[in-house]
Write a structure and sequence with these properties.
Blueprint: E1 5-6, E2 12-13, H1 39-44, E3 70-73, E4 83-86, E5 91-97, E6 100-105, E7 107-108, E8 117-126, H2 134-139, H3 141-144, E9 162-168, E10 171-180, E11 195-198, H4 199-208, E12 214-218
Parallel strand pairs: 4-12, 10-11
Antiparallel strand pairs: 1-2, 3-6, 4-5, 5-6, 7-11, 8-9, 8-12, 9-10
């Protein structure tokens, strides 16, 4: 039956669509059967071939179904168009209004654990360039030094197909919400990066959100800002 998410009485999210996926039982010696993915989600996350670079379909069997994109009920004071990043639970919400939100699963890197509070999406980019931070270059000069002038867009670029850039009081926080081809990282905490989404999801978010939109980033035990 549906589960609900409650954060200090502010957010209640109930999936509009359940994952609908089951795993076959297995004996001690039988190989584990792959989950069958409903056609609805296979269509949602199908490969995309009309972009400047091909975007493969993710392996949805590597991702917990609760992290698939879905519209949910949402009760809170934030205005429609706002984004709420629930870092501990690996969810990102885009408020749609009328008590609804679009919920996406995310992966969290070290940089994604370093910012909390409120900012705005200063700008957004399709197939962005990526430049390692000075700290990254200093820490691993052989790896990141050659990329000091930036990395061209493409399938191997860490920012994926789309990126949203978060500023606070006019200053770049270096916090990014961006795409990834590493489907296994959704729902997990990984070694580096900010907030990563499946490319299909970040493209959906990109179409819906506007520059200047408010972003509230929650860390462990942090209440949502009013």
């Amino acid at each position: 039956m549906p589960t609900s998410l409650t954060r200090r009485g502010f957010v209640i999210a109930v999936p509009l669509l359940l994952g609908g996926c089951v795993s076959a039982g297995r004996s001690a010696t039988a190989p584990k059967a792959k989950r069958e993915i409903p056609q609805y989600y296979r269509d949602m996350y199908a490969a995309i071939d009309d972009e400047p670079f091909p975007i493969p379909a993710p392996d949805l069997t590597k991702i917990d179904p609760k992290y698939y994109r879905q519209e949910v009920a949402y009760n809170g004071p934030e205005t429609p168009g706002s984004v709420v990043v629930d870092t501990p639970n690996r969810f990102l919400y885009l408020l749609l209004g009328e008590g609804r939100a679009m919920r996406y699963g995310v992966g969290v890197g070290k940089a994604g654990l370093e910012f909390e509070g409120t900012g705005v999406i200063q700008y957004k980019r399709e197939w962005p360039r990526w430049t390692p931070t000075q700290d990254m270059i200093a820490r691993e000069p052989e790896r990141y030094g050659p990329l000091a002038q930036g990395m061209e867009p493409g399938p191997t670029n860490p920012l994926g197909a789309r990126a949203l850039y978060l500023f606070k009081n006019g200053v770049d926080t270096l916090y990014r919400i961006h795409g990834t081809n590493e489907d296994w990282s959704i729902g997990r905490s990984i070694s580096s990066g900010c907030i990563r989404m499946l490319n299909q999801d970040v493209m959906d978010l990109y179409r819906r959100v506007r520059p200047g939109s408010r972003v509230i980033v929650l860390q462990q035990d942090t209440p949502l800002a009013a």
